[in-house]
Amino acid sequence: MDYRELLKMAEEIKRNSYSPYSNFRVGAALLAKDGRVFTGVNVENASYGATICAERTAVVKAVSEGQRDFDAIAVSSDTDGGSFPCGICRQFIGEFGDGIKVITGRSDGEIRVHSISGLLPHAFSKDELNK
Ligand code: THU
What we know:
Layout: H1 3-13, E1 26-32, E2 37-41, H2 54-64, E3 70-77, H3 87-94, E4 101-105, E5 111-115, H4 116-119, H5 126-129
Parallel strand pairs: 3-4
Antiparallel strand pairs: 1-2, 1-3, 4-5
């Protein structure tokens, strides 16, 4: 599974986005180190704060299936160059490894690859809890 293919999966799953309030569709595809892919979409709610982002949906699906080792997560929205995970999602992804790659862009165009630690420098982590 290459990153362009992973981004294509994020683009495709976006069709399941439940986003009647923002009309901002987001899809995510999370690649586990064993090759499995867990997809996710944003799921909004009439109580706006109950909304969950696409990235966290994908991580929750994976972890609840027993998977915790991740290589990369691709994110797709309807904005031209793709979009990056929000702050909460960066924190949520980083919980499972600071080397996880975040893939954005377009599968039929330019792809950007960043590490989660680059997107969330000086993150609060489990290391703090053990001091
Ligand atoms: N959203 C995501 O799914 N992921 C992000 O990283 C940023 C925002 C969703 C939440 C909400 O449903 C919509 O995009 C607008 O904020």
